[in-house]
Write a structure and sequence with these properties.
There is one protein chain. By secondary structure, the chain is α/β, with parallel strands linked by helices. It has 2 domains: about 140 residues, NAD(P)-binding Rossmann-like Domain (Rossmann fold); about 160 residues, Dihydrodipicolinate Reductase, domain 2. The protein has 10 helices and 16 strands. An 8-stranded mixed beta sheet has the order 8-9-10-7-11-12-13-16. Strand 9 and strand 10 form a beta hairpin. Helix 7 crosses helix 9 and helix 9 crosses helix 10. The protein is globular and about 75 Å long.
Amino acid sequence: MMKPIRLGLAGLGSMGRNHLRNVSERSDCVLAAIADPAPEALGDAVAKTGARGFDDGLAMISDAAIDAVVIAAPTTAHAGLAKLAIGRGLPVLVEKPLAATVEEGAELVSLARDRGVPLQVGHIERFNPAVLRLGESLAEGRAGTVYSIASRRAGPFPARIRDVGVAIDLATHDADIISWIAGQRPTRVYAETARRLHATSEDLLFGLMHFPTGVTGMLDVNWLTPVKRRWLTVVGELGLFELDYLTQRLVFTRSNLARSKTVGGYATTFEGDVESIDVENREPLAAELDAFLSVVRTGDEPVVDGEDGLWALTIASSLLKAARDGYPVDPSRALTSLTTP
Protein backbone atom coordinates (compact mmCIF):
# COMPACT_ATOMS: atom_id res chain seq x y z
CA MET A 1 0.00 0.00 0.00
CA MET A 2 1.27 3.44 -0.92
CA LYS A 3 1.30 6.08 1.76
CA PRO A 4 -1.67 8.44 1.23
CA ILE A 5 -0.78 11.85 -0.19
CA ARG A 6 -1.46 14.64 2.31
CA LEU A 7 -3.43 17.36 0.52
CA GLY A 8 -4.15 20.93 1.49
CA LEU A 9 -7.40 22.43 0.17
CA ALA A 10 -7.73 26.19 -0.12
CA GLY A 11 -11.36 27.24 -0.57
CA LEU A 12 -14.72 25.68 0.26
CA GLY A 13 -16.86 27.25 -2.42
CA SER A 14 -18.71 25.20 -5.03
CA MET A 15 -15.62 23.50 -6.47
CA GLY A 16 -13.90 23.33 -3.11
CA ARG A 17 -16.78 21.33 -1.67
CA ASN A 18 -16.66 18.98 -4.65
CA HIS A 19 -12.95 18.42 -4.03
CA LEU A 20 -13.71 17.83 -0.35
CA ARG A 21 -16.28 15.16 -1.26
CA ASN A 22 -14.03 13.43 -3.80
CA VAL A 23 -10.92 13.37 -1.64
CA SER A 24 -12.93 12.10 1.35
CA GLU A 25 -14.01 9.09 -0.71
CA ARG A 26 -10.47 8.08 -1.68
CA SER A 27 -7.88 5.91 0.06
CA ASP A 28 -4.80 7.16 -1.84
CA CYS A 29 -4.95 10.67 -0.38
CA VAL A 30 -6.15 12.48 2.71
CA LEU A 31 -7.14 16.04 3.47
CA ALA A 32 -4.52 17.10 5.99
CA ALA A 33 -5.39 20.80 5.96
CA ILE A 34 -8.32 22.97 4.84
CA ALA A 35 -8.53 26.74 4.60
CA ASP A 36 -11.58 28.97 4.25
CA PRO A 37 -12.53 32.32 5.85
CA ALA A 38 -16.11 31.20 6.60
CA PRO A 39 -16.07 29.72 10.15
CA GLU A 40 -19.17 27.57 9.72
CA ALA A 41 -18.07 25.96 6.45
CA LEU A 42 -14.55 25.44 7.77
CA GLY A 43 -15.73 23.95 11.06
CA ASP A 44 -18.04 21.52 9.29
CA ALA A 45 -15.29 20.38 6.89
CA VAL A 46 -12.76 19.94 9.68
CA ALA A 47 -15.24 17.92 11.75
CA LYS A 48 -15.93 15.59 8.82
CA THR A 49 -12.30 15.04 7.79
CA GLY A 50 -10.15 15.59 10.87
CA ALA A 51 -8.04 18.02 8.84
CA ARG A 52 -6.27 20.95 10.42
CA GLY A 53 -8.31 24.10 9.82
CA PHE A 54 -7.05 27.53 8.77
CA ASP A 55 -9.00 30.71 8.14
CA ASP A 56 -6.35 31.84 5.65
CA GLY A 57 -5.01 29.88 2.68
CA LEU A 58 -1.58 31.49 2.81
CA ALA A 59 -1.18 30.43 6.43
CA MET A 60 -2.19 26.88 5.53
CA ILE A 61 0.37 26.65 2.74
CA SER A 62 3.07 28.11 4.97
CA ASP A 63 2.45 26.02 8.11
CA ALA A 64 0.61 22.79 7.29
CA ALA A 65 2.37 19.44 6.87
CA ILE A 66 1.16 18.70 3.32
CA ASP A 67 2.52 17.10 0.14
CA ALA A 68 0.47 19.07 -2.40
CA VAL A 69 -2.15 21.81 -2.67
CA VAL A 70 -5.55 22.11 -4.35
CA ILE A 71 -6.53 25.76 -4.85
CA ALA A 72 -10.27 26.32 -5.19
CA ALA A 73 -10.38 29.83 -3.75
CA PRO A 74 -11.82 32.86 -5.62
CA THR A 75 -9.98 33.66 -8.85
CA THR A 76 -8.28 36.79 -7.55
CA ALA A 77 -6.60 34.71 -4.81
CA HIS A 78 -5.16 32.07 -7.16
CA ALA A 79 -1.88 33.81 -7.96
CA GLY A 80 -0.86 34.54 -4.37
CA LEU A 81 -1.70 31.06 -3.12
CA ALA A 82 -0.10 29.22 -6.03
CA LYS A 83 3.03 31.37 -5.89
CA LEU A 84 3.57 30.52 -2.23
CA ALA A 85 2.94 26.81 -2.80
CA ILE A 86 5.37 26.66 -5.73
CA GLY A 87 7.92 28.49 -3.61
CA ARG A 88 7.60 25.71 -1.04
CA GLY A 89 8.07 23.09 -3.77
CA LEU A 90 4.50 21.80 -3.41
CA PRO A 91 2.76 20.45 -6.54
CA VAL A 92 -0.29 22.58 -7.24
CA LEU A 93 -3.70 21.91 -8.75
CA VAL A 94 -5.27 25.33 -9.25
CA GLU A 95 -8.86 25.43 -10.41
CA LYS A 96 -9.45 27.32 -13.62
CA PRO A 97 -8.84 30.03 -14.46
CA LEU A 98 -5.14 29.85 -13.68
CA ALA A 99 -5.18 33.45 -12.43
CA ALA A 100 -7.16 36.66 -12.71
CA THR A 101 -4.79 38.24 -15.26
CA VAL A 102 -2.44 37.05 -17.99
CA GLU A 103 0.46 38.73 -16.18
CA GLU A 104 -0.20 36.75 -13.00
CA GLY A 105 -0.62 33.53 -14.96
CA ALA A 106 2.64 34.03 -16.85
CA GLU A 107 4.47 34.62 -13.57
CA LEU A 108 3.13 31.34 -12.14
CA VAL A 109 4.09 29.34 -15.22
CA SER A 110 7.59 30.83 -15.22
CA LEU A 111 8.06 30.22 -11.50
CA ALA A 112 6.85 26.61 -11.70
CA ARG A 113 9.17 25.96 -14.63
CA ASP A 114 12.18 27.51 -12.89
CA ARG A 115 11.55 25.60 -9.65
CA GLY A 116 10.66 22.33 -11.37
CA VAL A 117 7.32 22.17 -9.53
CA PRO A 118 4.29 20.56 -11.22
CA LEU A 119 1.49 23.03 -11.93
CA GLN A 120 -1.83 21.53 -13.06
CA VAL A 121 -4.81 23.69 -14.03
CA GLY A 122 -8.31 22.41 -13.34
CA HIS A 123 -9.83 22.53 -16.81
CA ILE A 124 -12.21 19.79 -15.80
CA GLU A 125 -13.84 19.34 -19.22
CA ARG A 126 -10.58 17.79 -20.47
CA PHE A 127 -11.41 14.87 -18.19
CA ASN A 128 -15.04 14.55 -19.26
CA PRO A 129 -15.44 11.01 -20.68
CA ALA A 130 -17.54 12.29 -23.59
CA VAL A 131 -14.84 14.81 -24.52
CA LEU A 132 -12.15 12.13 -24.35
CA ARG A 133 -14.27 9.83 -26.53
CA LEU A 134 -14.78 12.68 -28.98
CA GLY A 135 -11.02 13.21 -29.11
CA GLU A 136 -10.49 9.52 -29.89
CA SER A 137 -13.12 9.61 -32.64
CA LEU A 138 -11.58 12.68 -34.26
CA ALA A 139 -8.11 11.12 -34.08
CA GLU A 140 -9.54 8.08 -35.87
CA GLY A 141 -10.64 10.41 -38.68
CA ARG A 142 -14.37 9.81 -38.32
CA ALA A 143 -15.20 13.45 -39.09
CA GLY A 144 -12.47 13.89 -41.68
CA THR A 145 -11.15 17.43 -41.87
CA VAL A 146 -12.63 19.55 -39.10
CA TYR A 147 -14.33 22.70 -40.37
CA SER A 148 -15.80 24.31 -37.26
CA ILE A 149 -16.17 23.87 -33.50
CA ALA A 150 -18.95 25.55 -31.55
CA SER A 151 -19.50 25.61 -27.80
CA ARG A 152 -22.42 26.83 -25.70
CA ARG A 153 -21.98 27.27 -21.95
CA ALA A 154 -24.99 28.97 -20.41
CA GLY A 155 -26.93 29.06 -17.18
CA PRO A 156 -28.47 31.23 -14.46
CA PHE A 157 -26.51 34.01 -12.80
CA PRO A 158 -24.27 32.57 -10.03
CA ALA A 159 -24.37 34.76 -6.94
CA ARG A 160 -21.02 33.23 -5.86
CA ILE A 161 -19.07 34.98 -8.65
CA ARG A 162 -18.09 38.52 -7.68
CA ASP A 163 -14.49 38.99 -8.76
CA VAL A 164 -14.54 38.23 -12.52
CA GLY A 165 -16.96 38.14 -15.44
CA VAL A 166 -18.20 35.31 -17.61
CA ALA A 167 -15.19 35.44 -19.96
CA ILE A 168 -12.56 34.64 -17.34
CA ASP A 169 -14.77 32.37 -15.24
CA LEU A 170 -16.46 30.31 -17.98
CA ALA A 171 -15.09 31.08 -21.44
CA THR A 172 -11.68 29.77 -20.37
CA HIS A 173 -13.26 26.29 -20.45
CA ASP A 174 -14.30 26.66 -24.05
CA ALA A 175 -11.15 28.45 -25.19
CA ASP A 176 -9.19 25.47 -23.90
CA ILE A 177 -11.46 22.74 -25.33
CA ILE A 178 -11.80 24.35 -28.76
CA SER A 179 -8.02 24.81 -28.98
CA TRP A 180 -7.49 21.21 -27.85
CA ILE A 181 -9.83 19.86 -30.52
CA ALA A 182 -8.29 22.08 -33.19
CA GLY A 183 -4.84 20.93 -32.07
CA GLN A 184 -3.45 24.46 -32.24
CA ARG A 185 -3.71 27.96 -30.80
CA PRO A 186 -5.88 30.65 -32.41
CA THR A 187 -4.21 33.42 -34.36
CA ARG A 188 -7.20 35.74 -34.30
CA VAL A 189 -10.18 36.19 -31.97
CA TYR A 190 -13.12 38.57 -31.90
CA ALA A 191 -16.05 38.98 -29.51
CA GLU A 192 -19.08 40.95 -28.43
CA THR A 193 -20.04 41.19 -24.74
CA ALA A 194 -22.84 42.61 -22.61
CA ARG A 195 -23.51 43.26 -18.92
CA ARG A 196 -27.11 42.72 -17.83
CA LEU A 197 -27.08 41.42 -14.24
CA HIS A 198 -23.49 41.42 -12.99
CA ALA A 199 -22.60 44.50 -10.96
CA THR A 200 -19.23 45.17 -12.59
CA SER A 201 -18.38 42.63 -15.32
CA GLU A 202 -19.76 41.11 -18.52
CA ASP A 203 -22.26 38.26 -18.15
CA LEU A 204 -22.65 37.48 -21.87
CA LEU A 205 -20.02 36.78 -24.51
CA PHE A 206 -20.19 35.72 -28.15
CA GLY A 207 -16.73 34.93 -29.45
CA LEU A 208 -15.02 33.78 -32.65
CA MET A 209 -11.66 32.04 -32.93
CA HIS A 210 -9.63 31.60 -36.13
CA PHE A 211 -6.94 28.91 -36.33
CA PRO A 212 -3.96 28.63 -38.71
CA THR A 213 -5.45 25.66 -40.60
CA GLY A 214 -8.68 27.55 -41.23
CA VAL A 215 -10.74 25.89 -38.48
CA THR A 216 -13.25 28.31 -36.97
CA GLY A 217 -14.33 28.22 -33.31
CA MET A 218 -17.42 29.85 -31.83
CA LEU A 219 -18.23 30.50 -28.16
CA ASP A 220 -21.64 31.35 -26.71
CA VAL A 221 -21.20 31.94 -22.98
CA ASN A 222 -23.61 33.62 -20.58
CA TRP A 223 -25.08 33.79 -17.08
CA LEU A 224 -28.49 34.86 -18.39
CA THR A 225 -30.09 31.55 -19.38
CA PRO A 226 -32.64 30.14 -16.88
CA VAL A 227 -31.46 26.55 -17.39
CA LYS A 228 -27.94 25.11 -17.45
CA ARG A 229 -26.68 24.18 -20.92
CA ARG A 230 -23.29 22.72 -21.80
CA TRP A 231 -23.07 21.76 -25.47
CA LEU A 232 -20.33 21.25 -28.03
CA THR A 233 -20.57 20.58 -31.77
CA VAL A 234 -17.85 19.70 -34.25
CA VAL A 235 -18.57 19.91 -37.99
CA GLY A 236 -16.28 18.01 -40.35
CA GLU A 237 -16.22 16.95 -43.96
CA LEU A 238 -17.68 13.53 -43.07
CA GLY A 239 -20.23 14.50 -40.49
CA LEU A 240 -21.27 16.22 -37.27
CA PHE A 241 -20.45 15.42 -33.65
CA GLU A 242 -22.84 16.69 -30.95
CA LEU A 243 -21.83 16.48 -27.30
CA ASP A 244 -23.65 17.23 -24.05
CA TYR A 245 -21.11 17.81 -21.26
CA LEU A 246 -23.72 17.33 -18.51
CA THR A 247 -25.23 14.02 -19.65
CA GLN A 248 -21.95 12.88 -21.28
CA ARG A 249 -23.90 11.98 -24.42
CA LEU A 250 -22.07 11.93 -27.75
CA VAL A 251 -23.83 11.59 -31.11
CA PHE A 252 -22.34 11.42 -34.60
CA THR A 253 -24.39 12.22 -37.71
CA ARG A 254 -22.66 10.93 -40.83
CA SER A 255 -22.99 12.96 -44.00
CA ASN A 256 -25.03 11.20 -46.65
CA LEU A 257 -25.38 13.36 -49.73
CA ALA A 258 -26.82 10.46 -51.71
CA ARG A 259 -30.01 10.52 -49.65
CA SER A 260 -32.01 13.65 -50.38
CA LYS A 261 -35.45 15.07 -49.88
CA THR A 262 -37.38 17.75 -51.66
CA VAL A 263 -39.68 20.09 -49.80
CA GLY A 264 -42.57 21.24 -51.93
CA GLY A 265 -40.54 20.30 -54.95
CA TYR A 266 -38.05 23.10 -54.37
CA ALA A 267 -35.69 23.04 -51.38
CA THR A 268 -33.38 20.03 -51.14
CA THR A 269 -32.14 18.65 -47.82
CA PHE A 270 -29.79 15.78 -47.05
CA GLU A 271 -30.35 13.37 -44.18
CA GLY A 272 -27.42 11.80 -42.37
CA ASP A 273 -27.14 8.51 -40.51
CA VAL A 274 -27.24 9.11 -36.75
CA GLU A 275 -25.16 7.04 -34.32
CA SER A 276 -25.06 7.30 -30.55
CA ILE A 277 -21.48 6.66 -29.42
CA ASP A 278 -20.87 4.66 -26.26
CA VAL A 279 -19.33 6.65 -23.43
CA GLU A 280 -18.29 5.17 -20.09
CA ASN A 281 -19.74 7.73 -17.69
CA ARG A 282 -17.60 8.98 -14.81
CA GLU A 283 -17.37 12.17 -12.75
CA PRO A 284 -14.71 14.34 -14.46
CA LEU A 285 -13.42 15.72 -11.16
CA ALA A 286 -12.52 12.21 -9.97
CA ALA A 287 -10.49 11.71 -13.14
CA GLU A 288 -8.87 15.12 -12.71
CA LEU A 289 -7.79 14.16 -9.19
CA ASP A 290 -6.46 10.83 -10.50
CA ALA A 291 -4.25 12.75 -12.90
CA PHE A 292 -3.05 15.19 -10.25
CA LEU A 293 -2.20 12.52 -7.67
CA SER A 294 -0.24 10.67 -10.34
CA VAL A 295 1.71 13.86 -11.03
CA VAL A 296 2.42 14.28 -7.30
CA ARG A 297 3.77 10.73 -7.05
CA THR A 298 5.75 10.61 -10.30
CA GLY A 299 6.69 14.21 -10.97
CA ASP A 300 5.48 13.82 -14.57
CA GLU A 301 4.07 16.72 -16.57
CA PRO A 302 0.35 17.31 -15.93
CA VAL A 303 -2.17 16.46 -18.63
CA VAL A 304 -3.37 20.07 -18.42
CA ASP A 305 -0.34 22.11 -17.42
CA GLY A 306 0.29 25.73 -16.57
CA GLU A 307 0.92 26.68 -20.18
CA ASP A 308 -2.48 25.27 -21.20
CA GLY A 309 -4.09 27.31 -18.43
CA LEU A 310 -2.16 30.41 -19.43
CA TRP A 311 -3.27 30.11 -23.05
CA ALA A 312 -6.92 29.69 -22.06
CA LEU A 313 -6.63 32.78 -19.87
CA THR A 314 -4.88 34.71 -22.64
CA ILE A 315 -7.55 33.79 -25.19
CA ALA A 316 -10.34 34.85 -22.81
CA SER A 317 -8.55 38.12 -22.06
CA SER A 318 -8.04 38.70 -25.79
CA LEU A 319 -11.75 38.14 -26.42
CA LEU A 320 -12.50 40.84 -23.86
CA LYS A 321 -10.02 43.20 -25.48
CA ALA A 322 -11.52 42.54 -28.92
CA ALA A 323 -15.01 43.29 -27.60
CA ARG A 324 -13.81 46.44 -25.87
CA ASP A 325 -11.77 47.79 -28.80
CA GLY A 326 -13.96 46.58 -31.63
CA TYR A 327 -11.36 44.75 -33.70
CA PRO A 328 -9.80 41.25 -33.86
CA VAL A 329 -6.90 40.43 -31.54
CA ASP A 330 -3.97 38.01 -31.90
CA PRO A 331 -3.66 36.28 -28.47
CA SER A 332 -0.01 35.37 -29.03
CA ARG A 333 0.95 39.04 -28.93
CA ALA A 334 -0.21 39.34 -25.33
CA LEU A 335 2.15 36.54 -24.30
CA THR A 336 5.00 37.83 -26.45
CA SER A 337 4.77 41.25 -24.81
CA LEU A 338 5.30 39.61 -21.41
CA THR A 339 8.45 37.78 -22.46
CA THR A 340 10.05 40.39 -24.72
CA PRO A 341 12.11 43.13 -22.99
